[in-house]
User: Fold this.
Amino acid sequence: MKKLFKEIYIIWLREMIRYWRTKPRLISSLAMPLIWLVLFGSGMKSAFAIGGGQAGFDFIQFLFPGVIGMSILFTSIFSVMSIVTDRQFGFLKEILVAPVSRVSIALGKILGGSTTAMIQGTIMILLSPIVGIKLSLGLVLAMLPVMFIASIALTSIGLVVASRMKSAEGFQMIMNFIMMPMFFLSGAMFPLSNLPNWMDILSKINPASYAIDLVRQVSFKFMDTPTQVIDLLSIDLFGHQVNLWTDLLIVSVFGVIMVTFGVFLFNKSD
Assistant:
């Protein structure tokens, strides 16, 4: 067991060093969420009346958790593209012939991607005063475990795809095909209410919906958001409003399933 944890740590450390040394990646991954938050949020808030225009609540406060969720989603899934590039350049083969279990490699990649996504989300939280969101230590501490759990689940999706891919171009094409519908149907940019039936069904089976709703419900606790607004924006599942703990349960169960499936596929990959 000690050997397994050491192997996972080494793979995780490599991902962290790789992330830290790629400064353009860090900058570019923050640019798009900031554009959405500052330009789209500030420009469109006058056109949206969330919760019937409740005093002290506007579109920026709705969009802020969604942008954090977007940052986690994109960073998590694309972080495991390193598996594909390692395979292309022969580095993965060198790791696989070493006395290191494939399970520890897969788990190290998942933890590395999740940590990267959590760092990205934390930076977004620290930048929240730019758009008028009140920053507090309680918000940061509460969001850290939530972002980590969500990123574990989302990174595992990338691992499932990366385990079967031979080229970075193919991985990017497939993940863009998967991620864009997941993103737009997650409720990050608009409330998941009064949707057409087909879109409502797709949003309910979308795991990103519950991950972003989890982030949103936690952040709302520290924004003094009116209760009626929270009820209005929460997901309606089988006639019941999904609360924070239900979101946490769904995301956690999905994460366990996807981690198990991702590790299994990676263990069977060439």
Q: What stands out?
A: The beta strands are 236-237, 240-241. The first helix runs from residue 2 to 21.
